[in-house]
Inverse folding.
């Protein structure tokens, strides 16, 4: 059983990595400290790699035998994802979510991880290294924001509104060409849309009622498993584009997050219909 105490251990590890490896490098990245992976929009920095090493070591010490899947390790060897859905305890880690923002000195990034038990997402922590608070979720126990002082407040998604009054985030860059064009054409049907280039901060905003929806096309587990469970436990409804339940191993299924099922159906029809 993954308990609240264990989740707080995870949050402490993310906070430590942020303090030691991430924030000292923020706006201090020298020559060669920023590198492209698959292209100019897919970056890695010394902070990503150092934070992932620290988080991996701390998790393996705190939870002996666990499987740790970090974004940078998976980028080097995607086969490490093979055991994710069978592991008795696995952590998927994004050491610096929003690397492009971080690399350009923009303070909109996060350090986050999700907890999986035999493929089921049971909890997550999304830490803000700048604000030094953490959004936490545990299956069946809700979602909450915890300040560095230890003070907590419960998270709750926004109330449902008609599609024309919805504001939220819509990322269509990784959709197939015809679908991307359709979504871009249909975006004026909602009240507003944005892209933060940081899923962790988008999910934090969604879970505390700061927007109504999120729409994604590609779903690497380190980018979306932490936010998906946070949104679920804050009272929201989400599913893949075809209406099936979210699975951490469904990378190309797309995801729509909304306040409730009726809002999901209406938004899917408006954007994809």
């Amino acid at each position: 059983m993954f308990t609240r105490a264990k989740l707080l251990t995870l949050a402490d590890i993310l906070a430590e990595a942020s303090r030691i490896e991430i924030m000292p490098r923020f706006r201090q990245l020298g020559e060669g400290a920023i590198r492209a992976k698959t292209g100019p929009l897919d970056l890695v920095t010394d902070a990503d790699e150092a934070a992932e090493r620290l988080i991996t070591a701390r998790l393996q010490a705190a939870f002996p035998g666990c499987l740790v899947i970090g974004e940078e390790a998976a980028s080097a060897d995607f086969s490490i994802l093979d055991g994710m859905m069978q592991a008795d305890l696995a952590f998927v880690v994004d050491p610096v979510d929003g690397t492009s923002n971080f690399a350009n000195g923009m303070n909109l990034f996060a350090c986050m991880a999700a907890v999986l038990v035999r493929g089921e997402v049971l909890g997550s922590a999304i830490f803000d290294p700048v604000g030094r608070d953490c959004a936490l979720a545990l299956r069946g126990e809700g979602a909450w924001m915890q300040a560095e002082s230890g003070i907590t407040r419960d998270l709750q998604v926004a109330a449902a509104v008609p599609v024309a009054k919805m504001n939220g985030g819509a990322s269509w860059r990784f959709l197939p060409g015809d679908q991307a064009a359709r979504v871009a054409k249909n975006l004026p049907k909602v009240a507003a849309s944005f892209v933060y280039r940081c899923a962790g901060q988008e999910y934090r905003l969604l879970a505390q009622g700061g927007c109504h929806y999120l729409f994604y096309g590609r779903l690497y587990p380190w980018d979306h498993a932490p936010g998906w469970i946070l949104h679920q436990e804050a009272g929201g409804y989400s599913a893949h584009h075809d209406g099936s339940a979210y699975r951490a191993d469904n990378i190309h299924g797309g995801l729509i997050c909304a306040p409730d099922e009726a809002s999901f159906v209406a938004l899917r029809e408006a954007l994809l219909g």
In short: The chain has a mean pLDDT of 96.
